Give the backbone structure.
Amino acid sequence: ALGASDAPMLGFGQVRHREQKYGHLARVVISPHHRGQGLGRTLCSALMREAPKLHEITAYSLFVYDDNHLAISLYESLGFVRQGTHERYPNMLWMVAPLSAIR
């Protein structure tokens, strides 16, 4: 979560171990009042740095709504590549990035 303990929460995200190889970014959200300030990049980068410390992974993954063009653009700039759609939710893109995506 982004935000000091005495300040309002600015963002939230989780990283899970998925399919025994991915550090899966999930529930990534930034407060609507604080978007456009680079906080999404900061949060995703922090999750990507922490994932290998928590789980033995070979890559990162995430799902994103296919009409969320700003998020897709952010994820692509972080090294994520579109892999197709979610098998049960065709409006969700599955994206994957290599471990080397985070520097």
